[in-house]
Write a structure and sequence with these properties.
The protein has 758 residues and is α+β, with helices and mostly antiparallel strands. 47% of the residues lie in helices and 13% in strands.
Length: 758
């Protein structure tokens, strides 16, 4: 039956084996194993996963040693899992499951036992949830797969509905904490026991607590559950409930020491406290959210909307895109076009000019995980390798994939070609770090370099040398450097990280953003055999040789425009000015500020691909480039208008500033002031080591943390982690704290003092 499993899942190298084992839990556990080694598999270790075919082969040869196969869910794949367990005759739960089954019209199969049901959908969840015979998760878990089809349908995208269900299954962060037993204890154990004993059912509690359960239940396990249930009525803190249970006579037997046994009872207990999932209202909530989003006001000035499939331009640029598309494992036109623009710009960025600027390009590709973004690198490699024998120096047009600092980038110019393209993965995260007010010095320098280089590719322009106290960091002047970049990210990660500060920095408006929204394309069976044609290799080699010749002579060929193109670009320039002058939002002004020059450079790029010896921008070149740029700006503008992107001063920014301010206070204020909020040894203050407790006590009551849905403590912890990840703070190890300062208090050292200057 495994052949019935959808092919789009089979193509992922995330398969494991499993077998039933007795782990002393309430029932045998499905333990995952690696088909590669026969050892235990882990959901966070890709080396223990294998292909679908390999797992099937090992399973068939195991003579029943393994029970079946499973699929590991990760943040990279598009899949999510809805597990409907056997309800054991619970009609309410069964009705709820039936509604879920009917709402999620996607591929479904029977569980290994045959009594449960698995629904596979596309979507992403912030965390897994389990409740009332229902489990949902999209990462850090593995799911058993049987191919025993219950509903033979395609795997459909239900992301929004799935997240609505996720919210209903746990509610807010505070509710989730309450209903999972993570709420803070508000009374002592003794006070809880006293209240339970004095309650209306106090005699029953007292008898169970004392070990006298026989008159109430047929087994001690039932009595254990009842006692925990009573205690949970007075406390929603798991640790406290466990302590009270284990202090009772019932909690003294060996079975009560099994963590899985106690947790099983607690989970069941808290599950009963949860309000019922309103499946009838679930769809209404989703429809209401969609209606509100659609009812939002459109931008005042109409602009052309981007099309689902961007048409390919004429000439070599379009041919390069077509080849990248043909050799892609998962062909996507938008991905192919982004790669072609970047490669063309890397080759001709310095050699050709228009309106006083070179043709270098900053391209940002946004596409879902699994859409095939790797086709850019593979396509460019195949193309450039094909011309190396004819033009050996053409390899210099492809630059490094990782750029650590401004100095490293400039030094690459000094020792190689003055024109190249770099393909940078997960650029959305890097962009956010560079634009942050807390960016470390090397990221600030890199941002400055990217801003400067965009405008330096024109003939006669110079990137000035830099001089540092450390001579190794010194850089030489670079004449007309043409740096092009293809940044890659997923829409989710990019827009989650994006805010207005990134627009205001001036870097993002320099990018042409190309976004793909569609489903994961079908596998191209012939992608490995795809090779560039003789004609395209000849054209590309000729262009490389011509550009190298112009670069060596420090000359640039100037791209002209015919009258029709001039008229179109004059009108577009006026249009851009009107958007800037009439907008009340800084975001909109930034987005339209560089739209004209970006379109002009793109049009010139197309013209060079048509005729590198006499490039002329005509009506078609101009119209194609303007359509692409207008669609890009409109998409970004709509994201801000719809509230998909944050503001300059969002909550995260305010929280980071608050933590930075408090840390600054700690190291600058005298001990007499600090000690009001710190019980840690004074030596920590003398050595400028900041305890977490000090930060927490200073900020727990601050509104920006107090009102955070995650809870003040969690929000403070996340803000500190961000500063650690950025290199501004460093956590001191527990060993060091214990050995040197005789305390285990969680504490931090300052790495970049500038961040915390008051």
């Amino acid at each position: 039956m495994f052949e019935n499993i959808p092919n789009e899942m089979k193509s992922w190298q995330q398969w494991v084996l499993w077998k039933l084992e007795d782990t002393q839990s309430a029932k045998p556990t499905k333990v995952p194993y690696s088909a590669n080694s026969g050892k235990l598999a882990a959901v966070d270790d890709a080396s223990t996963w294998s292909s679908f075919e390999n797992c099937i082969e090992v399973l068939n040869k195991s003579n029943g040693f393994y029970s079946g196969i499973g699929f590991v869910l990760t943040e990279q794949d598009p899949f999510a899992f809805i597990d409907l367990d056997d309800t054991n005759g619970d009609k309410t739960a069964l009705d709820r499951q039936l509604k879920i089954y009917n709402e999620f019209q996607s591929y479904a199969e029977k569980s290994p036992s045959g009594s449960g049901l698995h629904i596979i959908v596309k979507g992403s969840l912030p965390s897994g949830r389990r409740r009332s015979f229902i489990e949902i998760y999209s990462s850090k878990r593995y799911m058993t797969m049987t191919g025993d089809i219950y509903r033979n349908d395609e795997i459909r995208d239900y992301n929004e509905l799935l997240n609505q269900l996720h919210e209903q299954m746990g509610g807010s962060q505070n509710q989730a904490a309450y209903y999972s037993g993570l709420a803070e204890a508000t009374e002592t154990d003794e006070a809880i026991i006293k209240r339970a004993t004095e309650a209306a059912n106090g005699q029953k509690f007292f008898n169970l607590f004392s070990g006298n359960w026989q008159e109430y239940y047929q087994s001690q396990s039932e009595a254990d559950f009842a006692l925990i249930d009573i205690v949970a009525f007075y406390s929603q803190n798991r640790a406290q409930i466990i302590r009270i249970f284990k202090s009772s006579a019932l909690g003294k037997r060996e079975k009560a020491n099994r963590t899985d046994y106690v947790n099983y009872m607690l989970n069941k207990c808290f599950d009963r406290l949860l309000p019922p999932v309103d499946l009838d209202g679930l769809r209404n909530q989703l429809n209401d959210a969609i209606d509100k989003k659609q009812a939002k006001k459109e931008p005042e000035v109409e602009v052309k909307k981007s099309k689902s499939k961007i048409p390919l331009p004429a000439g070599l640029l379009g041919e390069l895109a077509q080849f990248i598309y043909s050799q892609a494992p998962r062909p996507v036109p938008e991905i192919a076009l982004a790669g072609a623009i970047g490669l063309m710009a890397g080759i001709v960025g310095r050699a050709f000019n228009i309106s006083g600027t070179g043709l270098n390009q900053y391209v940002l590709l946004l596409a879902p995980t699994g859409a095939g973004k790797e086709a850019i690198a593979s396509g460019i490699d195949k193309l450039m390798n094909s011309v190396l024998h004819a033009v050996p120096a053409s390899g210099e047009f492809v630059g490094p994939a990782k750029i650590s600092s401004e100095q490293a980038l400039i030094k690459h110019f000094n020792k190689s070609s003055s024109s190249f393209v770099s393909i940078v993965g997960e650029f959305g995260i890097q962009l956010k770090m560079m634009a942050s007010p807390f960016a470390p010095p090397h990221m600030q320098g890199l941002l400055s370099a990217f801003l400067d280089l965009f405008n330096k590719s024109g003939e006669g322009k110079v990137l000035r040398p830099t001089v540092y106290s450390d001579r190794d960091k010194n850089t030489q002047a670079v004449y007309a450097p043409a740096f092009s970049m293809i940044g890659e990210s997923t829409p989710e990660k990019f827009y989650e990280a994006l805010d207005e500060t990134m627009i205001g920095s001036g870097l993002l408006p320099r990018f042409t953003v190309i976004e793909y929204h569609g489903e994961r394309p079908a596998l191209n069976k012939y992608h490995t055999s795809a090779q560039p044609s003789f004609e395209i290799v000849e054209k590309l080699a000729t262009l490389c040789a011509h550009s190298l010749m112009l670069n060596s002579q420090s000359k640039a060929s100037h791209v002209q425009s015919d009258e029709n193109a001039k008229k179109i670009f004059e009108e577009f320039d006026v249009f851009c000015d009107s958007q800037i002058n009439t907008s009340e939002r800084e975001v909109k002004r930034h987005l339209w500020n560089r739209a004209h020059i970006k379109a002009l450079k793109l049009a010139a790029l197309v013209a060079v691909g048509i005729n590198p010896y006499n490039p002329v921008v005509d009506f078609n070149c101009a119209n194609w480039a303007i359509d692409l740029i207008v669609g890009d700006v409109h998409n970004m503008q709509s994201r801000f208008d719809n509230g998909d992107i944050g503001s300059f001063d969002n909550d995260e920014s305010k929280q980071l500033k608050a933590v930075a301010r408090v840390v600054g206070d700690y190291v600058t204020q005298p001990w007499s002031m600090v000690s009001k909020y710190s019980s840690s040894p004074a030596i920590l203050h003398n050595e400028k080591i900041v305890p977490f407790s000090y930060i927490s006590r200073r900020l727990s009551g601050v509104t920006i943390f107090k009102k955070d849905k995650r809870g003040a403590s969690r929000a403070i912890d996340v803000a500190i982690k961000t500063l650690v990840d950025r290199g501004d703070l460093q956590e001191v190890s527990k060993v060091t704290m214990s050995k040197d300062y005789n305390t285990t208090a969680r504490s931090f050292m300052i790495v970049t003092p500038k961040t915390f200057e008051v």
